[in-house]
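Researcher: Let's continue the batch. This sequence belongs to Gfo/Idh/MocA family oxidoreductase, and it's 386 residues. Same format as the previous ones, please.
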Amino acid sequence: MVQVKVGIIGLGAQGSAYAEFISAGKVKNMALGALCATSATKKEMAAEKFPGVPFYQDYTELLESGNIDAVIICTPHYLHPEMGIEAIKRDVHVLIEKPAGIYTKQVKELNEIAAAKPEIKVGILFNQRTNPLYQKVKEIIDNGEIGGIRRTNWMITTSWRPQGYYEQNEWRATWGGEGGGILVNQAPHQLDLFQWICGMPKKVYSNVKFGYQRNIAVEDDVTAVFDYGNGATGVFIACTHDVMGTDRFEILGDKGKIVVDDSKKVTIKRLYKSESEMSASLTQEEVANIFKHGYLGDIYKEEVLEFNSVWGGQHTAAMENFASSILEDTPLLAPCNDGINQVELANAMHLSTWLGKEVELPVDEELFLAELNKRISEENKYPIKK
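Model: Same format as before. Here are the structure tokens for Gfo/Idh/MocA family oxidoreductase:
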């Protein structure tokens, strides 16, 4: 195999963009093998934009066509695990657009079937893992440069969505069609990065608001508190109604602090002595002298790094990693086993608010599914989930 022939399932905004990247030769070692969408309008669009590329309205026909080596799944979220499983069964490599699924029970099934066929590559398209900024932050944490984590905070309110956004499609912002709001649509990348860099919490307590500033059934505002089980805590804040938006990620350690602003600038403050050492050894007079003039250069060294980001670059890098994994057995940046962590965090935040109490991780998957199905039944638009 010289190039990986890829089929795109789902030609919405993301699927169409990926098809354009591949057909334009922007993804190394990848070629566009086939397209799939149920809509006749999408079929006409595909014939115009991608002439000669086979088109299917049934994804199983695409999987069995012989035209592809792999698929990228860009359909509504509930279909991600189901379609991934059918691809694996047919020995087709799979890259799933985030999220891996809506509830952990269905993602576990995907992971189990993937584990039974290790020769088939199954990844999640967490493109932010290719971002050099977040790779650098993870490297600093993994190397112990700021010591053990004491507190994490991420306020990500830059995904403003007006009411018209939710009215584009009937399935959007519904429990049965989309499976949630900001936690399953706009914030999965941040939730993935949060746990990828800082680890998974042991407990979650949340205040999630449903239809707070938008006429929708699902969440548009989230505040959650993480308990890591060792004294460290975290806070995650997200919403879709802040038109001015804030993106600020802070990680406090015993030996320093990392602050990420707007996913563009990283400020790293490394203490010469750990906070624990200073607390144990400094006299009150020494402390007073340090803070007297407001200059803290004697206790820490500051480094500021700036990063540029080109839209699409991280997506193509994630797809190149997928192709390289198939062709050269390069490790996947986001294997399917990792995808369940982001789903677990979203499930925990929903469940905590639904129950009105702190929940432990891993969440009770049957309890979560029962609570989700209550809301799907109330909508009376979609069948309950199993």
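Researcher: Any comment?
Model: The mean pLDDT is 96.
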